[in-house]
Amino acid sequence: MVKFKLNPSDDNQSSNLRAFESEIRALVGIQHRNIVKLYGFCFNAEYSFLIYEFVEKGSLTTVLSNPEEAADLDWDKRFNIVKGLTSALSYMHHDCPSPIIHRDISSNNVLLDLDYEAHVPNFGTARVLKPDSSNWTSFAGTVGYTAPDVLKDVIDQCLKPQRRNKVDEQVVATTKLAFTCLHSNPQFRPTMQQVYQALTSGRPSPLPKPYSMISLGDLIGDGHGMQG
């Protein structure tokens, strides 16, 4: 089964064309289990479209907005989604012949299959970096979104009680890792390769205090991230 993505013809034809070309340029030759496969495309004066693989469950936003599906999305599934997403980004940044920067990763742009495996779509704002060029890219993502969890001072107690020790350790370690990615100084942010390695390196360290006592300040720590 495949999915067609039409490129509309309207007053923004020039920007739509640039996005269409960016998407093709970024996806041609990419083969990764966590990146949506591009099967083909058509481009002419009247219309253009891309042919993608169909990812059954739709976006992570759609799943989280459905109370029943969100309840079924336990920590193991969520952690697997994060690992799949970082695996895709690590591949794009470090293993492609020319690095690819997606520039619009959000829950709307993470698709889930029937096994809750993450797939990255929508490369219309992506930039393929040239080896001899600057790595600076302008902001191109979804404007006006801030994850509400970042604004809370204590992690929500929303996980099921089984295997809490292991789950608690993973939740805290993953959240601390996420905060290092938000560091104001880019030199202290980990690469996606480092993030993926940290997520797959085994069981994290035991918690220094009970899970219910861990605050936002504990997660941010001393404000220093990972250096390469």
Structure description:
The chain is α+β, with helices and mostly antiparallel strands and 228 residues long. The protein has a domain at 149-228. The protein is 34% helix and 12% strand. The chain has seven helices and eight strands; from the N terminus they run βαβββαααββββααα. It has helices spanning 13-27, 60-64, 67-72, 75-95, 164-181, 192-199, 216-220; strands at 2-7, 38-43, 48-53, 58-59, 100-101, 111-112, 118-119, 127-128. The strands form three sheets. Strands 1-3-2 form a three-stranded antiparallel sheet. The radius of gyration is 19 Å and the shape is globular.
- Sketch the topology as an H/E string, one letter per element: EHEEEHHHEEEEHHH
Catalogue the unreliable spans: 143-159
Mean pLDDT: 79
Strand order of the largest sheet: 1-3-2
Percentage of residues in strands = 5-15%
Number of helices: 7
The counted number of beta strands is: 8
Write the layout of secondary structure elements.
Elements lengths: L1 E6 L5 H15 L10 E6 L4 E6 L4 E2 H5 L2 H6 L2 H21 L4 E2 L9 E2 L5 E2 L7 E2 L35 H18 L10 H8 L16 H5 L8
Antiparallel strand pairs: 1-3, 2-3, 4-6, 5-8, 6-7
GO molecular function: ATP binding; protein serine/threonine kinase activity
Enzyme class: transferase
Protein name: non-specific serine/threonine protein kinase
Using brief descriptors, characterize the structure shown.
228 residues; alpha+beta; three-stranded antiparallel sheet; 8 strands; 34% helix; Ser_Thr_Kinases_DiverseReg; non-specific serine/threonine protein kinase; ATP binding
